[in-house]
Amino acid sequence: MSNTPNGVVVVAVLTLLGAVGLFFSFIMLTALGGMGRAGQLVDPALMFRFYTLIIPPLVLSLFSVIAVIGIFKRSRFGWYSCILLWILSITYLVYVMLSVLPLSAPSADVEYALVGSIILVNVVFIAYFQSEKVKRYLKISGQ
């Protein structure tokens, strides 16, 4: 790992930290989902919406770990999986912004700024991984 570009190491570490955050949000959403009253009738559409919010963080956190392992092994799979991971993360965050975050909440500005900054970081990661230095390091064809 001595000849690994510093940017690749930084991106991999930040992706792992993001995986920890996603897994923590999965645990918190699961705990909050179990706080209903016993015997309470639950609308199936509401449950579907809840599961579409709770399952992706778990899948993305596990996928993040796999992608970072691929990057440190210098495999093409790592490059492709990181690009796919960041695209899926952006898609999930846009879904959260459009379906969950209310526009009229007092803290809506802060929530939108936070989610928007995470989206921006993912876009920067994708742009960095398109550079020749990273592609050469991971031996991606088509240079």
Write structural notes for this entry.
There is one protein chain. This protein is mostly helical. The chain has one domain. The protein contains five helices and no strands. Helix 2 packs antiparallel against helix 3 and helix 3 runs antiparallel to helix 4. 17% of the residues are buried. The mean pLDDT is 84.
The overall strand count is: 0
Question: Biggest sheet, open or closed, and with what strands and sense?
Answer: none
SS-based class: mainly alpha
Task: Please count the helical segments.
Answer: 5
Order of helices and strands: HHHHH
Overall average residue pLDDT: 84
- CA radius of gyration is 18 Å
| Amino- and carboxy-terminal Cα gap | 22 Å
**Overall domain count:** 1
Low-confidence stretches: none
* Helix content bin: over 70%
Beta content: under 5%
Approximate shape? elongated
The gist of it:
The protein has 143 residues and is mainly α. It contains five helices and no strands.
Lay out the secondary structure.
Blueprint: H1 6-33, H2 44-72, H3 76-99, H4 108-129, H5 132-137
Descriptive key words:
mainly alpha; 143 residues
